[in-house]
């Protein structure tokens, strides 16, 4: 398909905790790209089976049968440590296994084609991105290279880098890591850019499956300036589901004196039923949670009211308003300064969440005009076209200014216990900030620079994100060597820090976790492995198609109008094909395709529509 100005289009991918969505700017508008099942959003789910790997809907649809090898919600792991309390809390609820890998990085353990395999979160994310890339490529009939991937505004440097790496692993050129609320604001405002020129303050409230983001933007004349962001990387629909699950587990225990929490399959089936009930409660005052043979042959059924659901999640809903207050405080604005409230994310369909927003903003109209599941990908596609130089006047008008989600600084004084703030949170990016430091002791010949992110004055409460040392300082009384330090943050929110001794020009620095925690060699290995997995998927699909052809031939052979010799040869060919597949589990894809082709040539009826 031709693109604007003959430039291969760049895509926008909303890589969500529970669902992902891909969109493209084409034919003067944004198109949300449906997947092979015709769905506009795809589950962020990867499954491993005895036969092969499944992605998206195919993976989600078999979750209940294969819970320990069906991986979801990896966005909650990406860029985090295994010992992180959030990770520890999450993995308690997951049926698949997560263990500590090298450098305390979580690894997901699955059984794939009879072998135990361990994957980093970025590898699983790369598989979801592969699916989204393929969805786009099938639709556009070209190879897609350039993409924007969105992340919660609250993602730190290491989570952003790990997401970027996931794109690199599947051969995407990630032209920008973009904040989800900014993308949603663009989607909201795009139609109005050239109509409504008044500057507006827009609050984007994005409550999805696993993350909550709130951002305040000033929009006008095609400029989108993020004034402040806040949020919680661990709050969303999955938590509401878990509250329902806990409620049912307790009820089951009371009624039947049995604890189902140790049974992964029962827990997964219960969670599916709870999620369904939660959705029903968005438009009905009551719902039934029902699971046949939930545990020990016992059927489980319970009724739940909207009011009870709201009660179970009350504290979680209230956490949303706390974050809005923080965001407004950072932007130096009170709630009356907000002109528009945009709701994004599947969980904003919950009536209580909408009511809380209405109450908080004292009756202000909530904007739900853009599809909550698609808004982020929609805005990302517009910005992708903008950066990709796809010639389109409206698209090129956009100017985006994002901000740093967390404060950044250096540990100073004895034991590096105090945070010397260099870049306050909510500073517009890209940015370069300078600070100068001095030696603390007489004859000090080296200085360590531990770099932290976080809001505490004490470094022990912040997150150490990297460190480096400057050596070779000439011995001298304390305070006589001056060191210039620069913090440089690029448009993706990725930080590099450099320091230079003023008198000697001795210099050192780091790009903080330029590769997340991965080395270039590790990324290369993952790229190669991703290629191998993809080839195995294709081989698996090809085996299935040959099997399907053989089955079709067998059933066509049974047609009573067919001569007995035709019948015999068709049956024989079909059985031979199946036997050949069984004898050759490792046959290569060309051989399998050749067999398909031969069957079709010999029996052209196979190519006819049913
Ligand atoms: P997102 O990450 O934006 O795709 O949001 C996905 C989350 O929205 C999941 O937790 C869904 O269960 C939740 N969700 C989708 N539709 C509804 C609904 N009608 N009522 C409540 N939650 C919903």
Automatic annotation (TrEMBL):
Top-rank taxon: Eukaryota
Protein name, per record: Heat shock protein 70
Family the entry assigns: Belongs to the heat shock protein 70 family.
Keyword ATP-binding: yes
SUPFAM superfamilies: Actin-like ATPase domain, Heat shock protein 70kD (HSP70), peptide-binding domain
One Pfam entry name: HSP70
Keywords: ATP-binding, Nucleotide-binding
Keyword Nucleotide-binding attributed: yes
Gene Ontology MF: a single term: ATP-dependent protein folding chaperone
InterPro entries the record matches: ATPase_NBD, Heat_shock_70_CS, HSP70_C_sf, HSP70_peptide-bd_sf, Hsp_70_fam
């Amino acid at each position: 398909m031709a693109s604007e100005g003959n430039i291969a289009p760049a895509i926008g991918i909303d890589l969500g905790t529970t669902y992902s969505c891909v969109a493209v700017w084409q034919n003067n508008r944004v198109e949300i790209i449906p997947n092979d099942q015709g769905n506009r959003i795809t589950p962020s789910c990867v499954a491993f089976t005895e036969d092969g790997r499944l992605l998206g809907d195919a993976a989600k649809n078999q979750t209940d049968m294969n819970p320990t090898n069906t991986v979801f919600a990896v966005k909650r792991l990406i860029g985090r440590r295994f010992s992180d309390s959030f990770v520890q809390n999450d993995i308690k609820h997951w049926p698949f296994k997560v263990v500590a890998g090298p450098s305390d990085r979580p690894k997901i353990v699955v059984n794939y084609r009879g072998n135990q395999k361990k994957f980093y979160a970025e590898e699983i994310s790369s598989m979801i991105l592969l699916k989204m890339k393929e969805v786009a490529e099938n639709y556009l009939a070209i190879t897609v290279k350039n993409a924007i991937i969105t992340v919660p505004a609250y993602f730190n440097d290491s989570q952003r880098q790990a997401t970027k790496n996931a794109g690199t692993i599947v051969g995407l050129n990630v032209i920008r890591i973009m904040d989800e609320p900014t993308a949603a604001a663009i989607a909201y405002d795009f139609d109005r850019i050239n109509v409504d020129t008044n500057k507006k303050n827009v609050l984007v409230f994005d409550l999805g499956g696993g993350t909550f983001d709130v951002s305040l933007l000033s929009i006008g004349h095609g400029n989108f300036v993020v004034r402040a962001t806040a949020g919680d990387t661990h709050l969303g629909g999955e938590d509401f589901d878990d509250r329902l699950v806990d409620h049912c587990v307790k009820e089951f225990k009371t009624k039947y004196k049995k604890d189902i929490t140790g049974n992964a399959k029962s827990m997964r089936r219960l969670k599916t039923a709870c999620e369904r009930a939660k959705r029903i409660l968005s438009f009905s005052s009551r719902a039934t949670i029902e699971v046949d043979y939930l545990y020990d042959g016992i059927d489980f059924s319970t009724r739940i009211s909207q009011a009870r659901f709201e009660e179970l999640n009350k504290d979680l809903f209230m956490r949303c308003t706390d974050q809005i207050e923080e965001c407004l405080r950072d932007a130096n604005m009170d709630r009356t300064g907000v002109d528009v409230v945009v709701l994004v994310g599947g969980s904003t369909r919950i009536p209580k969440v909408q009511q809380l927003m209405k109450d908080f903003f004292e009756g202000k109209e909530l904007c739900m005009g853009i599809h909550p599941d698609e808004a982020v990908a929609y805005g990302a596609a517009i910005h992708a076209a903008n950066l990709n130089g796809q010639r389109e006047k409206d698209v090129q008008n956009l100017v985006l200014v994002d901000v740093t989600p967390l404060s950044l600084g250096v540990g100073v004084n004895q034991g590096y216990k105090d945070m010397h703030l260099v870049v306050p949170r909510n500073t517009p990016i890209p940015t370069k900030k300078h600070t100068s430091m001095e030696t603390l002791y007489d004859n000090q010949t080296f200085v360590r620079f531990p770099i932290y992110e976080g809001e505490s004055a004490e470094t022990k409460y912040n997150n150490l994100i990297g460190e480096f040392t400057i050596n070779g300082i000439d011995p001298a009384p304390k305070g006589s060597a001056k060191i210039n330090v620069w913090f440089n943050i690029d448009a993706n929110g990725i930080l590099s820090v450099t320091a230079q001794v003023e008198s000697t020009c001795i210099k050192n620095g780091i790009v903080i976790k330029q590769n997340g925690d991965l080395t270039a060699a590790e990324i290369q290995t993952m790229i190669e492995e991703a290629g191998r997995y993809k080839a195995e998927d294709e081989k698996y699909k090809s085996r299935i198609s040959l099997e399907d052809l053989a089955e079709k031939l067998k059933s066509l052979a049974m047609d009573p109008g067919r001569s007995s010799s035709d019948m015999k040869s068709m049956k024989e060919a079909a059985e031979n094909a199946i036997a050949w597949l069984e004898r050759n589990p490792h046959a290569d894809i060309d051989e399998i395709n050749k067999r398909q082709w031969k069957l079709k040539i010999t029996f052209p009826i196979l190519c006819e529509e049913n």
